[in-house]
TrEMBL record:
<protein>
    <recommendedName>
        <fullName>Hydrolase</fullName>
    </recommendedName>
</protein>
<dbReference type="InterPro" id="IPR013785">
    <property type="entry name" value="Aldolase_TIM"/>
</dbReference>
C-alpha cells in the first residue's frame, strides 16, 4: 500500500548526529555513477577526518597538495564510513611510486584512485594492470586529448575547471556520451544545476573548513544565540 506521497522517505536521526555537513539537495538531481553496486551522486571534497566522519555525502573525494603517503591514506580510510576515493599523484609524484601508493590504497579499502592531469599514459596503463578499482583522472582544461587517457585505462573523468567547468563538460559530452563524469559544483545551487545540466553524473562539494565552522559556533556563543542544527552545517 502506498502513502499519500510515494516519494516520502522516513528519516531517523538524533540531536547529536544532526550536527553534520549536509550536501546541497540539488546534487540529488544528478544521475549518479554506479560503482560496485552503489549509485554515487555526491562526493564531499575533504581530507579532514572530522568532516569525513560527519557528513551525508554518498562518497569521499580525498586529494591533497602534498606527496601522497600511505599513512595519510590509511587515516582517511579508517575515518570514512562511506566509499573513499584517494589521490595517488601522477604529476610530481610519478612512476612506480604512484603504482605503489595506488595498490596500497586498494588493499586498505579505497573504492577508487585519483590521478591528476599531468599523469603519463604509461602510468595509467600500469595502474590498470595492477588494480581493480576505478581510475579517476582530474582535468582542469580541455587542452589535453582525452582518447589516449581513456585507451590507457581511465574509467572516470573528474572536471575541476573553475568557472569553465560546465563548458569543459559540454565539450567532453560532444565526443563521449556515456563516459562517467564527476565535476566540481561551484559555490551556489545554480552552478550545481548548471554543471549537472552540462552532463556531469556526480558532483564534488567542498564544505566549510573545521576552522570556519568553529568560528560560526563561537560567534553564536558570544552573541548568546542558539545554533539551529536541524539541517546540519551549510556554507
Amino acid at each position: 500500500m502506498g502513502t499519500e506521497d510515494d516519494n516520502f522517505i522516513p528519516e531517523i536521526k538524533n540531536d547529536l548526529r544532526s550536527k553534520i555537513i549536509y550536501i546541497p539537495e540539488e546534487i540529488n538531481e544528478a544521475s549518479g555513477i554506479n560503482i560496485f553496486g552503489r549509485t554515487l551522486k555526491s562526493f564531499i571534497f575533504s581530507t579532514d577526518v572530522a568532516i569525513i566522519r560527519n557528513n551525508n555525502a554518498d562518497a569521499i573525494f580525498s586529494v591533497y597538495p602534498f606527496t601522497p603517503q600511505p599513512a595519510i591514506t590509511q587515516a582517511l580510510i579508517v575515518a570514512a564510513d562511506a566509499p573513499i576515493f584517494c589521490g595517488v599523484g601522477g604529476g610530481l609524484t610519478g612512476g612506480n611510486r604512484v603504482l605503489s601508493i595506488a595498490r596500497d590504497a586498494e588493499f586498505q579499502g579505497a573504492s577508487g584512485v585519483v590521478v591528476n592531469q599531468p599523469t603519463e599514459n604509461k602510468v595509467i596503463e600500469q595502474l590498470k594492470k595492477h588494480i581493480e578499482i576505478p581510475i579517476i583522472w582530474t582535468i582542469s582544461s580541455i587542452d589535453e586529448p582525452l582518447q589516449p587517457k581513456i585507451d590507457a585505462g581511465v574509467d572516470i573523468i573528474n572536471v575541476s575547471g573553475g568557472k569553465e567547468t560546465s563548458k569543459i563538460i559540454k565539450e567532453i559530452r560532444k565526443a563521449y556520451e556515456l563516459i562517467p563524469i564527476i565535476a566540481t559544483g561551484g559555490r551556489n545551487d545554480d552552478r550545481i544545476m548548471e554543471t549537472i545540466a552540462a552532463g556531469a553524473n556526480a558532483i564534488t562539494y567542498t564544505p566549510p573548513s573545521s576552522a570556519e565552522l568553529l568560528r560560526r559556533i563561537m560567534r553564536a556563543h558570544r552573541a548568546g544565540e542558539a545554533i539551529d542544527f536541524s539541517k546540519g552545517f551549510k556554507k
